[in-house]
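Weekly modeling sync, notes
Attendees: S.R. (lead), two postdocs, one rotation student

Agenda item 3: backlog of single-chain predictions. S.R. asked that every request posted to the team notebook include the full sequence so nobody has to chase files. The rotation student volunteered to paste the first one in as an example of the format we agreed on. Action items at the bottom.

Example entry:
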Amino acid sequence: MENVLTLLKKHQDWRKNCLNLIASENAMSDFAQKLYVTDLMHRYAEGLPFKRYYQGLKYVDLIEDEVSKSFASHFQANFVDIRPISGTSANLAVFAALSDRGDKILTLGIQGGSHVSHEEPGAAGLLGLQVFHLAFDQQELALDLNKVEQQIMEIRPKFVVLGGSVILFPQPVREIKEMCQRVGALLIYDAAHVFGLITAGFFQNPLAEGADIITSSSHKTFPGPQGGIILGNIDEELQKKIRWKVFPGVLSNHHLHRIPALYLTLLEMQKFGKDYVAQILKNAKKLAEELYDYGFDVLGKRKGFTASHQIAVDVSKQGGGDIVAKELENVNIILNKNILPWDGANPKDPSGIRIGVQEMTRYGMKENEMKQIAKLMKETLLDKKNPDKMRKKATWLRRNFQKIKYCF
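Predicted structure, as returned to the notebook:
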């Protein structure tokens, strides 16, 4: 036991000295963390509020009902399910509700930015779906709508999935929704990465643009507890199918202690989200520009590099994504290797890295700190300066950014 506790302390001390640029992570506020560690973490619930298979939940029912209604109101959705415990479980439940084994679906593909759960190795394959990939223009970093229209007409998918793991720019939701309607397909948008941006009104709102369903996690640009959510404007029959696939299909108990922290995070985003997300977007743009000026091959230059929290960089000249991510970790800069549109499907040795600024922004960093981070990356990867010295510089930069901002 002592060894595990020692390792835990080492981890926490280390990460306080790191510049975390993982695009899929964030940090809850102190208040949210207090709501997260409550008696609810010991309790068990199956089913829906007021329709449970366990007793002892009379207050939990009221809490869960209030939180669901708050999300429905904020997103103007007629359907919300906050029970999924991850974005992947949300996808699994929705995909299962909308399809049967052998059905055809269209996704972006990993090279186009989709999440693995959309693909054959993930939830889609687990359900026995035939996965086809939307035509993606590598130069424009966008869907080729003429080819996509032809694909949808020919394949006639059960549903199309947009969104995913790499979302630098808005996607043509309205246009693809119109195509889907012509063949009776539904449109799903996986908003896991941009859910906070959408919540604050700084990114395209897929529901407003015609998507039938949003699936998401709740812990990336939306800085809540790790978990998932499903929202949509759909008929009652489909609502019932999805709820049934959530439970008993995908999960049993849905980790009740998440729910009050999830609610508080929504309130924080309603009060502070516009300032927070505006700074995220400024920081991402500034970091991308600085990296480009230093000579890095930052994707999306013609479009301004990014319109989200993410930056994608081709580091094949620096040894590839795997080597670069490890070199940066060695100096306390944490990010991940990532497949780029022209890479093969093997995720072990991609040519790119993916950067996200949402967590460091939540700790109060602004454009000046982005300039310093870019310089650290340049000195580490291009100038090959001493790693020990670079680690000290990264730690020094992080020292004044230990308190979470944009919260109660």
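Discussion: group reviewed the output briefly. The mean pLDDT is 97.
Action items: rotation student to repeat for the remaining queue; S.R. to check formatting next week.
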